[in-house]
């Protein structure tokens, strides 16, 4: 944590004092008589770009009424005509391109961008996205704004997270470097003259969708400082962001919407003003499902005091927020100075965006010509190609030869591109089949490999039919047996299928009334194009509607389909009334694909996910494998044509079943945007030598993972840093069409130098990765930890010496005994290689640091600073609603370990602050069942936030140097203690 920076609250106070002084001087000098009538006149100090940002903010803040200031606290900030101020909105989505505003350049998903391990390229992408956001501002469409909600820096700790596609990596160092690069591109690199104002999402420890507004992420201090905070800090320190968004979840029992670290921690990382926002509807959660505050006024007041500046609530209706803030002011929950502080943060960002500068400031002239420009299209292709990861290439199957033009591309993703929730609208789509055909200059065969089926009601003999026009029509049962009664059934795994009408090529979806074939692709918040075909004992099928809203607690409607009208229109019915259908396979997808690839020079199979279905916001993945039908397709194609190349196009690690062993070549890509097909062709045919690297561990099975709600990566051996098993593919993994040799790492000022030689026959990029491992420590340390990396381009036979920066301070970890960063003296392994498991050269590094002394429990010790604990019976909880963390026991016998404690000649008294239920706190030595030296008893407190002091005399055995264990009764909360 940086030192010497005064708090934002302190600066806000000084700013208000200066504003008052300026106004007083103006009145004294009679300047009010010459204040221009035109609100856009540069004589207003806030419109003078030559003045410092702080002076401009002070001037504008001093001109606003209290009501005007309060109005700016909501996401939709209204215009203030008397000052010539236009409306402003926080929150334009820009995760991998500008989203939700229309056609714009769509770059690879965030996980794909990070897979390039190329910060320079990512900065270019960020700059392009920033330009396009500026381009959209010229027309100010609905949803416009230069405050961009990107990037997402939540760590990909668990590959089952539904929003895995939005993040960068399971590693905080890599995440920090990629997010900083993207943010610098978005901002333009000058913190005082912003191209856009990016916001990091979502602070903090947000990596599960199940019950995401009510689950608490337990972060003991080491995990919080070394892991979760470490991903957010680099971009903030580099001024590559202008704020953070608080996440929906709780951390240690406290909603992140009121997490005091927004002020106490995040704002200490920079001297710039940060504009912190809530996630959508999160303020209402405080009084809703979180039940943390009884009124919105109390919740909003707490959020402002914690460090929130802008409330994203009730869509465009600001009245509930402004009413709550006014109520909080009237009842003393807030002071006007609290409002001023938040508004000053908002205004500082708006000033830096050039909003009040002549002609919009530095970037005001950027127009719509930049949107999907040829330069951005070229960049999108480059980013998509660089992000692809070659997983397997047995016997040099790849690259393919363009002379072998007899190619067939098959699979459910062979000739389509899907977009995700935070994607922009594709301006065009180059599918894998398109890209390969363009590369070969010849047509290629193609088959989606999905069954075309007809569903016949066994009771009536009628078929389910769809509308034939492009607008589609309500599904109904009829005697028609032609194309209107045929559907392509796409299997996405976990029993979910989508049905695309053969009559018009549109997907069937529910519109809250009927089922209509009118959707280009599955989409929407509830993804109402999902179905299950439930086979019955008699061989018939029930057609079950499985849109995501059916998983909501408020859904009470039936979910099965059956005719509900006199014309046979299908509607929702109870299971007992569901129609029983026979499933007639009109055309076998596997059969068609096998026929298409037989005898061809090459078969390319493109399988993967549908981003709206296989895990997305609000829905974690329940299955880490490919859909069974897709796996069967690959096996059948491979059997028909041994020259099979498989492309896996999805947004997360996949277990891949037996395919990893059976197919000769595997290439992974994310849903990589409009240029996906061209980029894949560039890689498959060797115009681009693949150098993408995995940013997550690919596990062999979900059994390798603990609960998705377990955030303690140290205790549960998560991520490559602590995982002791054998992964399918390790962190940092990726193959090339050439080979590289590494020299021995040599210590130089500020890091290490390593000579890398291209020993193959093709030019290529290598991602050189430096890891460290601390051989001995007081505390459990990572098996290895990424500290530096660089992507280097080498011609055949060429050698380059790369420098990898790593300083002794980079080896620090969080010392819980003294609540500070510490570099321990000792020997550290320096490991340089092509992945976390492919170490090519190594050396040792003797570092002079310090030795962590024995614990001194005579000082007040926070219970959260334990060394170990009993899993399943210990939770970290909110000590008070405003701040502080305590330890809560969820079962009798819950224990905390405080290792290497020096009790000296003897401790005679134990004292602790406890709350919650009645019970005991036992002091034991050596183990949770070791010698009992004292027991403190509590009668309980009226509230879990009311703490009382309990004491116990200790026996003479409490002496020497040993591990101290505190064993708690269920329901007891422990905040601090001492042994004296």
From TrEMBL:
Catalyzes the hydrolysis of a non-reducing terminal alpha-L-arabinopyranosidic linkage in ginsenoside Rb2 (alpha-L-arabinopyranosyl-(1->6)-alpha-D-glucopyranosyl) to release alpha-D-glucopyranosyl (Rd). It is not able to hydrolyze alpha-L-arabinofuranosyl-(1->6)-alpha-D-glucopyranosyl (Rc). GO terms for biological process: arabinan catabolic process; xylan catabolic process. CDD domains: beta-trefoil_FSCN_BglX-like (cd23343), CBM6_xylanase-like (cd04084). This is Exo-alpha-(1->6)-L-arabinopyranosidase. Coiled coil: none annotated. PROSITE patterns: CBM6. The keyword Signal applies. InterPro entries: BXL, CBM6, Cellulose-bd_IV, Fn3-like, Galactose-bd-like_sf, GH, Glyco_hydro_3_C, Glyco_hydro_3_C_sf. Gene3D superfamilies: 2.60.120.380, Galactose-binding domain-like, Glycoside hydrolase family 3 C-terminal domain, Glycoside hydrolase, family 3, N-terminal domain, Immunoglobulins.
């Amino acid at each position: 944590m940086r030192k010497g920076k005064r708090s934002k609250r302190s600066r806000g106070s000084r700013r208000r004092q200066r504003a008052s002084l300026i106004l007083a001087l103006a009145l004294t000098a009679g300047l009010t008589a010459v204040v221009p009538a035109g609100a856009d006149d540069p004589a207003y100090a806030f419109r003078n770009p030559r003045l410092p940002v702080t002076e401009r903010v002070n001037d504008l803040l001093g001109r606003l009424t209290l009501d005007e200031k309060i109005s700016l606290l909501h996401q939709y900030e209204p215009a203030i005509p008397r000052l010539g101020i236009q409306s402003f909105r926080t929150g334009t989505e820009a995760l991998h391109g500008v989203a939700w505003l229309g056609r714009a350049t769509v770059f690879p998903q965030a996980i794909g961008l990070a897979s390039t391990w190329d910060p320079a390229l990512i900065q270019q992408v960020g700059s392009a996205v920033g330009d396009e956001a500026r381009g959209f501002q010229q027309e100010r469409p609905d949803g416009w704004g230069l405050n961009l909600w990107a990037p997402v820096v939540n760590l990909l700790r668990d590959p089952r997270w539904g929003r895995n596609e939005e993040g960068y990596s399971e590693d905080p160092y890599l995440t920090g470097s990629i997010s900083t690069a993207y943010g610098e591109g978005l901002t333009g690199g000058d913190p005082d003259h912003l191209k856009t104002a990016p916001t990091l999402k979502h602070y903090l420890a947000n990596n599960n969708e199940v019950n995401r507004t009510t689950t608490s992420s337990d972060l003991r201090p080491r995990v919080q400082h070394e892991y979760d905070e470490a991903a957010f800090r680099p971009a903030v320190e580099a001024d590559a962001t202008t704020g953070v968004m608080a996440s929906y979840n709780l951390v240690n029992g406290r909603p992140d919407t009121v997490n005091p670290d927004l002020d106490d921690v995040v704002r200490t990382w920079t001297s710039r003003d940060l504009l912190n926002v809530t996630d959508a509807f999160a303020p209402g959660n405080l009084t809703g499902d979180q039940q943390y505050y009884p009124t919105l006024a109390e919740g909003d007041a707490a959020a402002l005091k914690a460090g929130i500046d802008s409330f994203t609530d009730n869509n465009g209706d600001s009245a509930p927020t402004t009413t709550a803030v006014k109520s909080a002011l009237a009842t003393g929950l807030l002071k006007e100075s609290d409002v001023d502080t938040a508004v000053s943060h908002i205004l500082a960002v708006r000033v830096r965006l050039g909003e009040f500068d002549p002609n919009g400031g530095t970037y005001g002239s950027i127009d719509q010509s930049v949107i999907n420009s040829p330069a951005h299209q070229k960049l999108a292709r480059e980013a998509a190609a660089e992000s692809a990861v070659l997983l397997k290439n047995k016997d040099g199957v790849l690259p393919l030869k363009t002379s072998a033009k007899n190619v067939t591309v098959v699979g459910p993703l062979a000739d389509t591109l899907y977009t995700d929730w935070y994607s922009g609208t594709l301006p065009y789509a180059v599918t894998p089949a398109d890209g390969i055909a363009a590369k070969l200059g010849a047509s290629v065969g193609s088959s989606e490999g999905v069954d075309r089926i007809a569903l016949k009601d066994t009771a009536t003999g009628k078929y389910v039919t769809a509308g034939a026009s492009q607008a589609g029509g309500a599904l109904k049962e009829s005697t028609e047996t032609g194309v209107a009664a045929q559907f392509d059934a796409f299997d996405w795994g976990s029993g979910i299928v989508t049905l695309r009408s053969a009559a018009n090529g549109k997907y069937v979806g529910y519109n809250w009334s009927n089922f209509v074939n009118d959707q280009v692709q599955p989409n929407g918040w509830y993804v109402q194009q999902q179905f299950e075909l439930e086979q019955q004992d008699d061989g018939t099928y029930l057609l079950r509607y499985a849109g995501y809203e059916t998983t909501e607690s408020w859904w009470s409607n039936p979910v099965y389909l059956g005719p509900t009208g006199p014309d046979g229109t299908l509607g929702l019915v109870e299971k007992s009334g569901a129609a029983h259908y026979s499933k007639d396979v009109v055309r076998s997808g596997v059969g068609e694909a096998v026929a298409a690839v037989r005898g061809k020079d090459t078969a390319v199979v493109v399988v993967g996910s549908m981003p709206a279905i296989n895990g997305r916001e609000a829905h974690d993945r329940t299955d880490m494998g490919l859909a069974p039908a897709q796996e069967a397709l690959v096996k059948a194609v491979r059997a028909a044509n041994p020259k099979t190349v498989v492309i896996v196009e999805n947004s997360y690690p996949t277990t891949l079943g037996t395919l990893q062993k059976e197919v000769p070549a595997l290439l992974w890509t994310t849903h990589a945007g409009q240029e996906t097909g061209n980029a894949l062709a560039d890689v498959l045919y060797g115009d681009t030598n693949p150098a993408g690297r995995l940013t997550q561990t690919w596990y062999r099975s979900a059994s390798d993972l603990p609960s998705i709600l377990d955030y303690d990566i140290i205790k549960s051996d998560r991520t490559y840093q602590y995982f002791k098993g054998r992964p399918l593919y390790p962190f940092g993994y990726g193959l090339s069409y050439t080979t590289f040799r590494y020299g021995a790492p040599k210590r130089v000022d500020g890091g290490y130098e390593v000579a890398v030689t291209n020993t193959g026959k093709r030019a290529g990029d290598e991602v050189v990765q430096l890891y460290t491992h601390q051989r001995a420590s007081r505390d459990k340390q990572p098996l290895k930890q990424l500290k530096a990396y660089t992507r280097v381009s080498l011609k055949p036979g060429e050698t380059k010496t790369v420098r990898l920066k790593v300083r002794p301070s980079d080896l620090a970890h969080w010392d819980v005994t003294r609540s500070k960063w510490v570099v321990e003296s000792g020997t550290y392994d320096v490991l340089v290689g092509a992945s976390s498991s492919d170490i090519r050269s190594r050396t040792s590094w003797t570092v002079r640091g310090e030795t962590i002394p024995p614990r001194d429990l005579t000082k007040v010790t926070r219970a959260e600073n334990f060394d170990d604990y009993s899993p399943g019976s210990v939770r970290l909880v909110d000590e008070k609603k405003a701040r502080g963390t305590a330890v809560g026991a969820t079962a009798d016998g819950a224990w905390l370990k405080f290792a290497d404690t020096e009790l000296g000649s003897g401790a005679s008294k134990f004292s602790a602050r406890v709350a919650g239920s009645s019970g005991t706190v036992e002091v034991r030595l050596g183990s949770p069942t070791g010698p009992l030296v004292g027991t403190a008893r509590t009668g309980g407190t009226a509230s879990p936030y009311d703490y009382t002091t309990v004491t116990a005399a200790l026996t003479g055995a409490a002496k020497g140097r040993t591990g101290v264990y505190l064993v708690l009764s269920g329901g007891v909360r422990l905040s601090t203690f001492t042994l004296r």
